[in-house]
Amino acid sequence: MDETMSSTESSTVGKISRAKSIPYSFVGTKKIAEVRTEFDGLEQDHRTGVNVRIAGRAMLVRRQGKLCFFEVVDETARIQVMASQAETVDFDGFASIAVGDWVGVDGEVITSRRGELSVMAQGWVLLAENRRGFGDKWHGISDPDVRYRRRYADLWVNERARRSLAIRFKTVAEIRRQLAERDFVEVETPMLHPVASGAMAKPFVTHHNALDMDLYLRIAPELYLKRLVVGGFERVYEIGRSFRNEGISPRHNPEFTMLELYQAYVDVEEMMRLTEELISSVAQVVVGSTTITYQGETIDLSPPWRRLTMEEAVSESLGSDISFYMPREELAKLVTEHGGKVDSSWGNGKLLLELFENVAESGLIQPTFVYDHPMEISPLARDHRSRPGFVERFEAFVAGRELVNAFSELNDPDEQKRRFADQLEQRTAGDDEAMPMDSDYVRALEYGLPPTGGLGIGIDRLVMLLADEAQIREVVAFPAMRAEQNFE
RNA sequence: GCGCCUCUAGCUCAAUGGCAGAGCAACGGACUCUUAAUCCGCAGGUUCUGGGUUCGAGUCCCAGGGGGCGCACCA
């Protein structure tokens, strides 16, 4: 035991003023997982003569008179810590450690008579009290409201909560690593926007006092990232929060994380390849396989992914061929027949999308690229090179949900201006989610955007998939909640 | 925003309209090999809130609040 181990101090620690003698540092010699691997396979009732120092949280306590058993958990693993009146300094003090307290322990690595790898505490020190407790030791905390509000407790009590968030953090780190490998530069763009454009959604509004102007929390970073491409950054990406002032649901949090990526000189084809490679290799690293189970379905993420046009997807689901070019009345009839809405202002493009969402989307379980979207619903994508009325765009669907949206970026400033004007028309026609005009973005295009492929991946949804979680709140550390009533 | 479900001790849950309970946690005590749940003892409540029906409401009705699910909106 060296001088930083304050077991003699701790020996004076009583229950009343426990917190007062808490040290300012306590550096263990090993993480618990290291102890476990290093001393794996010992026979029962064995003493190694080797001392280790570990730190963690006492998550279970079993008192047995002059002997006491704890399960101490750190970031890496859990291990049994034993204390005995014969060997442990201030045994009574140690025995009063409660479930949830943080402790530092110095002791010999042994196995118990039952054979469990343990640390026989000699010195120990309280590192923090848990005054609140962790609730029922068998059932833990099951009230979702309490779980999300007190995530710091949830993470100790519900193994799955920890696992799902760990998958999230690892996924983001791995995406960054792989994009760096492909020479993409991670950039940052504004979150406070004078114009809420780049997507179709209702923004949050805020106000800047010194400038005396309203600003919008960004609904998408898209237009700024493309400005950077105009500025000469040829491969950029941003993983960051966007904000949409819409309903909260099992699949929607008001702030959510997207990866948006832009690569100069390539088209939507290249974005497809990048998508399937990136997602499958991230899955391989994060969950150890490209085959995953999501809500009971086995999903194979390995490339190549299935590809079909939006019309093909609809035709397949309907069992009869449909076409974007068929008369509007026929398309509208199909939409209503299949439970969709029809608005008199909608053209064939919106009708096709509505039909797709109603009949095809939820059936796309295995990874599927749906491509060739109508221009009407794609104001930022470049005109299709051969099909009038269409753009070069795809969305990737997995488990019946949109996961990726990508296109060959529209780089003709005149056409972009015209598309914004169309949106404006839809806005005045009552669609308050139509995209507003961003004149500076059009000006940027006038300086010249090279042919560029762009890609957006919903990180929360990707993580839901990898973690097999049905609810977005399970993969967001601190999901949006109403202000807490009756705080205690 | 609409519909359905739900709210009882710190936690997990009981209680045909008839005395609000159990297990765990806490607290006091016993126990030197335990593995969520050893034994003994003790304590713990505005049954989410406010109205109403009833001799009597945790239970039925109405309104409100929190939460969940579905729909709508969206990613």
Could you explain how this protein is built, in words?
- The protein has 488 residues and is α+β, with helices and mostly antiparallel strands.
- The chain folds into 2 domains: 7-128, Nucleic acid-binding proteins (OB fold (Dihydrolipoamide Acetyltransferase, E2P)), CATH 2.40.50; 159-305 and 366-475, Bira Bifunctional Protein, Domain 2 (BirA Bifunctional Protein, domain 2), CATH 3.30.930.10.
- 30% of the residues lie in helices and 26% in strands.
- The protein contains 14 helices and 18 strands.
- The protein has helices spanning 7-10, 32-38, 91-95, 144-149, 151-157, 159-181, 222-230, 268-287, 310-318, 328-337, 348-359, 413-428, 439-447, 459-467; strands at 47-64, 67-73, 78-84, 102-111, 117-128, 185-186, 192-193, 205-208, 213-217, 235-243, 255-264, 291-294, 297-300, 306-309, 368-374, 390-398, 401-408, 452-458.
- The strands form 4 sheets. Strands 6-10-11-18-17-16-15-14 form an 8-stranded mixed β-sheet, with helices on both faces. It has a 5-stranded mixed barrel with strand order 1-2-3-5-4.
- A hairpin with a 2-residue loop joins strand 1 and strand 2.
- Helix 6 (159-181) packs across helix 14 and helix 12 packs antiparallel against helix 13.
- It is elongated and about 90 Å long.
- Residues 1-17 have low confidence and may be disordered.
